[in-house]
Amino acid sequence: MAIFGYLMFGPQIQSQVTLNLPASISSKVAIYTTLVNPIAKYALMVTPIVNAIKTRFSCRYNLRFLSILIGTNLLISTVLVALAIPFFGSLMSLVGALLSITASIILPCLCYLKIS
């Protein structure tokens, strides 16, 4: 991807792909879509964690209040970790890349070996 970006934009290429886009309406829509996408996915990704933590507590508590409390604490802890660790985005990119390789290459091979 980096090679194609360099070939497309030349030596004036910037570190983020969205910074290289021209200043048109379609580019702004692409940039804002890239911004809104992870924010919109956050609740979807945190819901299984909240449900797993919620099952650890007894049912005598109000489940809605408990769910909101757990979700708020997870959000605050995520923000604190992101602010405390410099280059958190690079760390998450590395973890995502390693897990993607594991899920797409190694895991199917292990499943095949387990089946056969």
Automatic annotation (TrEMBL):
Primary location group: membrane
GO molecular function term, any single one: L-amino acid transmembrane transporter activity
Pfam families xrefs: Aa_trans
Residue intervals passing through the bilayer: 29-53, 65-88, 94-113
GO cellular component, one term: vacuolar membrane
InterPro entries (UniProt xref): AA_transpt_TM (IPR013057)
Keyword line: Amino-acid transport, Membrane, Transmembrane, Transmembrane helix, Transport
Membrane protein topology class: Multi-pass membrane protein
UniProt-recorded name of the protein: Amino acid transporter transmembrane domain-containing protein
Originating organism: Gossypium armourianum
